[in-house]
Structures are given as C-alpha cells and as structure tokens.
Write a structure and sequence with these properties.
Order of helices and strands: EHEHEHEHEHH
CATH superfamily: HUPs
CATH architecture: 3-Layer(aba) Sandwich
Number of strands: 5
Number of helices: 6
Structural class: alpha/beta
Radius of gyration: 16 Å
Bound molecules: adenosine-5'-diphosphate
Shape: globular
Distance between the termini: 55 Å
Number of domains: 1
CATH class: Alpha Beta
Largest sheet: 5 strands, parallel
Strand order of the largest sheet: 3-2-1-4-5
CATH topology: Rossmann fold
Strand content: 15-25%
C-alpha cells in the first residue's frame, strides 16, 4: 500500500493546496496531510485551528487525513509508514527550496522519494502569505480559499487586527 505525506504549514489551507491534495490523493492509497506544529513561519493560526480548517476542506476525499507533527518530516513519514512526499511547485523560488530540502532529506532517509506536482495555472501565484495580506486589506477571498476558511480569516483579522 502506497502511503503519501503532503507536509506544510497550511496557514491557512488555500485552493492551491487543495488542488495538490486532490491530485496527490489520486496517486496513492492513503494521503496524510502533515501540518508542522513548529513552523519557522510564525503562523497566524494555531496548529489546532490549521488542522480543523483542513479537516473540513478534505471531507470529500475518503483516502485523505490530516495530522500535525513536530520535528523532522522524514521521522513523521517513517512513523506513518509513508515513502512518498508530495509538494507543490509554483513558478519561481519553490524549486530551489525543494531541491535543497530534498538533498538534506535524502541523507537522513534514502527510502523517501519526493514527488513535486506543478501548481495548476490558476493557482500559480496563490500563497497563504498573499491570502493573509489580502484578508487584512478586506479583499474578496471567494476563489482563493474554501468558504469556511474565508470566514475564519475574516474573524481572525477582525480579532487580531481590529480597526477603530
Ligand atoms: P511550507 O511552509 O512547507 O512551504 P506551505 O503551506 O506554504 O508550507 O506549502 C505547502 C506545500 O504546498 C509546498 O510544497 C508549497 O510549495 C505548496 N503550495 C503552496 N501554495 C501552492 C499553490 N498555490 N499551488 C500549488 N502548490 C502550492
């Protein structure tokens, strides 16, 4: 049985991530979305909420589940019996980053293979960072994130960055 892991910060999950989830889940029997608990990106949403937002977004995918983890992704993968790591590649700097991380991961876990899926054209320029900036400025998030994520973003922005 081929088990894959799609790791990331998912702060919050976007339709670009969901596109990768849909395509990656068609390539393996089980796909685990691994959410970094200690992301160096200083996430806006706490890990519990990032996981909850993903859980709701993947309700239609029977072979996908989500778990948070600490430490090295290859250790998380070994514990789950997963051999394939999925990542999404957008135009620009994603490739350099993935390449560097893969070389390191290969040293730690030669059995783990990386599969990069090219971002679909409509999501090439979509990132969680952009989404948060957009939400802060009151932009319409409808085409970019699932509806429940747009609601969570609006709530978060109004609580954490209240306007007077
Ligand atoms: P990380 O902190 O690991 O980069 P992210 O949540 O930002 O976590 O991204 C997780 C993965 O999803 C990465 O492989 C990233 O390149 C990919 N990704 C992010 N946004 C998109 C998108 N719009 N289309 C395709 N892949 C994406």
């Amino acid at each position: 049985m081929l088990i894959g892991v799609y790791p990331g910060t998912f702060d919050p999950i976007t339709k670009g991530h969901l596109d990768i989830i849909e395509r990656a889940s068609a390539l393996c029997q089980e796909l685990i979305i691994g959410v970094y608990e200690n992301s160096s990106k200083r996430p806006l949403f706490p890990v519990k909420q990032r996981v909850e937002l993903i859980e709701k977004a993947i309700a239609g995918f029977p072979n996908v589940r989500v778990e948070s983890f600490q430490g090295l992704v290859v250790n998380f993968m070994h514990a789950a019996g997963a051999r394939v790591m999925f990542r999404g590649l957008r135009a620009g700097s994603d490739f350099e980053r993935e390449f560097g991380m893969t070389l390191l991961n290969k040293k730690l876990a030669p059995d783990v293979e990386l599969v990069c899926l090219m971002a679909s054209s409509q999501y090439q320029f979509l990132s969680s960072t952009l989404i948060k900036e957009f939400a802060l400025l009151g932009g319409n998030l409808e085409d970019l994130v699932p509806a429940h994520v747009a609601v969570a973003l609006k709530d978060k922005v109004s609580t954490d960055f209240p306007r007077d």
